[in-house]
Automatic annotation (TrEMBL):
Residues 26-98 form the DUF6444 domain. It comes from the Bacteria. The lineage of its organism: Bacteria, Pseudomonadati, Pseudomonadota, Gammaproteobacteria, Thiotrichales. Pfam families: DUF6444. This is DUF6444 domain-containing protein. Residues 59-72 have a biased composition (Low complexity). It comes from Thiothrix nivea (strain ATCC 35100 / DSM 5205 / JP2). Residues 56-107 are annotated as: Disordered.
Amino acid sequence: MPALAHPLPTTLDEAHQLIVRQQERIAGLEKQAARVVVLEQQVETLQKQLEELVAKLGSSSRNSSKPPSSDSPEQRAARPNARGVAARMAGNPAIHATNGRYIPPNK
């Protein structure tokens, strides 16, 4: 027979004290279990918020309904210049000479 961690009570008073201690331990464990449930719910809520924030962090005016002015400086620098074609055409002497119409050079 295995040895008991705590000897059995020999008197009614010792048995009563043992029962009271066990009830206190059970009450403490129940409080901990309730706290664990609350903390698990908080973790779930925070994970959802984190996912939303990460999604917002990756959004820009190109992949959402946000206006271009809300883009970060890095996002602004990365987007193509809206005047890219016009700026290239502005310095083309073939267009200047023909009033804005492009005529390819004869070869």
